[in-house]
Amino acid sequence: MTNSIEELADSNLIIVTGSNTTEAHPVIALRMKRAVRKGAKLIVIDPRKIELTKWADRFVQIKIGTDIPFYNAVANVIINEKLYDEQYVNSRTEGFAEFARHVQHYPPEYAAEVCGVPVEDVYYVAREYAKASPGAAICYTLGITEHSCGSHNVQSLGNLGMLGGNFGAYAGGVNPLRGQNNVQGAGDSGAIPTDLPGYQKLERPGVREKFEAAWGVPLPKRRGITKITAMDQMIKGNVRGVFIMGENTVISDPHANHAEHALKSTEFMVVQDIFLTDTARLADVVLPAAAFAESDGTFANSERRVQRVRAAVKPPGEARQDVDILLDLFGRMGLPQSATTAAEVWDEFRQLAPILAGITYKRLDEGQGIQWPCPDEDHPGTPYLHRDDMDSGMPGFFAPVDHIPPAEEADDEYPIVLTTGRRRSTYHTGTQTGRASGFELLMPHEMCEINPIDAAEMGFEDGDTLVVSSRRGSVTVAAKVTDRSPRGAVFMSFAFPELTRTNDVTSDAYDFITETPEFKACAVKIEKAAEQNLHWKSAQARVRLAGEVVMPTKLKRDAAVAPAGD
Amino acid sequence: MGQDLARPASRARPVPLTHNMKPLNLPLNLQVNGIGVAVPSDARVLDALRKTGFDVPTLCYDERVGPKGTCRMCLVEVTVGGKTQTVASCTSFAAEGSKVETHTEALKDYRRTLLEMLLSETSAPKRFPDDDPTAHSEFYRAVREYDAKPDALPLLERRKPAPDPNPFIQRDYDLCIACYRCTNICNEWEEAGAITVSGRGQDSQIFSFFGNNLLDSPCTFCGQCINTCPTGALTDRKLAGVDPFKTERTRTICPYCGVGCGINLITQDGELAGTQPDFDAPSRGSLCVKGQFASWEFVKSEERLKYPLIRKDGVLQRASWDEALDLVAGKFKQIIEEDGPDSIVCWASARVVTEANYLLQKFARAAIGTNNIDNCSRT
Ligand code: SF4
Ligand code: SF4
Ligand code: FES
């Protein structure tokens, strides 16, 4: 995030797009609700009628995968009506003139048609956003990035941020909400093929040399390959060994059959994890690791805040902390390390990564975590980025991006679009929430959320067992009839892989720049299964999806009794 | 029961503002019980007295929803411009040059009487005469501090415990003192609208629609009502049976999403027993259903991996650490030798600590000699 979670409560306006915040980031949603209470406007732009729409001033229900035309048209209105922050644009950005010409190809009427929204929505978003800026925040998550044009989607939001002068503004910014607890930290640490620790580009003069001096070995010059490329290379036989730490690739990756096939094609596979996951089952060596409650170290959250993680108990059996295992392995590879604890590893890391240099365990233990950049030990940390300048010292560049439809669109054979994501009471592949007692009542199994009209047309009822198939595979799943799904599209999570391996179905397309998989759109067909799972029907009778109130049958007659607060 | 496990006295402090957040207001100077203190111009009297190290019971106050001024426990005497007034310190703004008294005899008597009235609404002291399971809760701390007597006033008949079979929240309204912190947090902060108040005064009752069953209500099971309840009327069912006097707490971070809420892991006899929010973290004591109710059971699962495994004759079999790690190192060296370092890839994780990720990328680059390092999420 460019800005802080707490700041959102002070925003003048919040645009939430491609983020089901009340379910995926419930405690960030609290600040959004607070902002609304304090008079901020909330605009939700999403294909699905998510729970957050209950608090929204406007819900713009765009078609899946049409983000770029929408935001380009919004920019078109802001520019043509001269609503942008001229001083900011002149002094801190480049490429405005070309961008202004570019968005002339995206008149509101065109976008309205492509996105399937009233043209008035485009004007509303443009005018309200401009009026509330600076101090208007845009928040997004995977609904924006998990597309084959994901990085262009992000740029189209960045363009708006610059038009409003919202980079470097308190309670403004363009804010990706991070999905997993330490996505931010994994990136910070340099676990990316192009960057050394602290986002120092491999090719930048002096960078590699600095690390060579610190680590005392020559380092490879050539960029590494991403996971997606690596999987293709595995199948081609060019990758012989793989080391996977803490990740259930087989379940979490799109087109799971492909991932499994790729891993099986390697000669030697090592998995370090806390459970014998479907991925670990394929390994040649499995190393038992400590869970978060047994580990010391840090996580960095969505707002770049580094916070301490502390071991409360010992790991089971002979399991060891990830840090210990790796330090041991270094020795056996003939490169013994001087660090022996997480604290010493952190100290080595921060001394090499200027954005983290001022963050010490001592400071973390005394306070509430520190937000990077934090260049020295007297620096309090940085709640919002770009305050005085674009942080790189460079101006922001407007990106003239174009609409690219999802790699796979609905057709006669596969007439429905499947989009995937998270639900509040389940998490990721379900290895953790699936083991918490009581959660089976909140979400007992995977459900395919389908619009009531579509369901009626296809003859499905709530709880029916369906077969959802794409060109890549098929799964069985229970139908959940709900108007959270728009017509023509269904929604599933991937938290119940035992019975419903959703990612057998999802697309193997990915963003051509960041290689983020296109989880958010693939074409499927849906049929009623020959064999019906009657247990599913009864188990889900009382399940409420977020934002829905299910009337118990005996109360249905008296539907006039509305829940408080509604 | 009685799960207020040694909760720190400072409940939920606001996040301090650092240099490049909103500018701080100019400070005001006042005196609390004769001690001078400076506070920002938008501070309340309560902030000033807490900053000075004094405290008063604040039974209806939760910093997240803001002051309600209904319980009157926080009353203090404020003298400004020669005039002395008794005000609720949670709602009143601090005034320049004012003198605040928090513990005059009159105020102490007043608080005791209020507490005795509240005690007459609950049968808790009768139900647990010797061993008070709610010993640590805010309300009973105040009862002890002001020496309020449970039998000072006749016990009132009221509030039948509402049976609610939900697996997360135990609701025992016999212990309720009608401070409404739960309904306030539910309606004004979580905004779930799951619980509400019906009736008035002595007849008032907290309930949820649809037969008082939270599973059928719009409850999100965020658990925030439990963690704000000052009496032990609302408790975490997963902590039932945990002895508050035998537990330890470890401050750490929720293992789920990128919000990174602060949690306290509760351990008893070296075993995980539950979670409570960390009110001193930037998340201000708020959690969602995952952080509150799912953040530790998986750690104790019987299915955890306990030993290294090596594939022998096609099956994974138990091995020693030496065998396993030597095999990994040996095999990697062999692959590097034969096909070069770029024929190995390493994948780090968004679920493990940054230090381990740093080490794995260093391992790939320095020990193997490849930039083939990636992590699982591209959010
Ligand atoms: S758990 Fe959360 S949503 Fe449910 S009643 Fe309590 S405060 Fe309301
Ligand atoms: S408690 Fe919920 S919102 Fe907070 S970090 Fe955990 S999963 Fe995220
Ligand atoms: S805390 Fe001030 S009136 Fe209750």
Question: What are the defining features of this structure?
Answer:
heterodimer, A: 566 residues, alpha/beta, Dimethylsulfoxide Reductase, domain 2, Rossmann fold, 4 domains, 6-stranded mixed barrel, 5-stranded parallel β-sheet, 21 helices, 21 strands, disordered C terminus, B: 379 residues, alpha+beta, Alpha-Beta Plaits, 5-stranded mixed β-sheet, disordered N terminus, binds iron/sulfur cluster, binds FE2/S2 (inorganic) cluster
Describe this structure in words.
The complex is a heterodimer of chains A (566) and B (379). By secondary structure, chain A is an alpha/beta fold. Chain A is built from 21 helices and 21 strands. In chain A, a hairpin with a 4-residue loop joins strand 12 and strand 13 (305-309). The radius of gyration of chain A is 24 Å and the shape is globular. Chain B has 379 residues and is α+β, with helices and mostly antiparallel strands. Chain B folds into four domains: 3-103, Ubiquitin-like (UB roll) (Roll), CATH 3.10.20.740; 157-238, Alpha-Beta Plaits, CATH 3.30.70; 247-300, N-terminal domain of TfIIb (Single Sheet), CATH 2.20.25; 309-378, Rossmann fold, CATH 3.40.50.740. Helices cover 23% and strands 20% of the residues of chain B. Chain B is built from nine helices and 16 strands. Chain B has a five-stranded mixed sheet, covered by helices on one side. In chain B, a hairpin with a 2-residue loop joins strand 3 and strand 4 (83-88). Chain B is elongated and about 90 Å long. Chain B starts with 26 loop residues before the first strand and ends with a strand. The model of chain B is unreliable at 1-23 (pLDDT under 50). The complex binds iron/sulfur cluster (2 copies) and FE2/S2 (inorganic) cluster. One iron/sulfur cluster sits between chains B (254, 256-257, 259-261, 287-288, 290-291) and A (25-27).
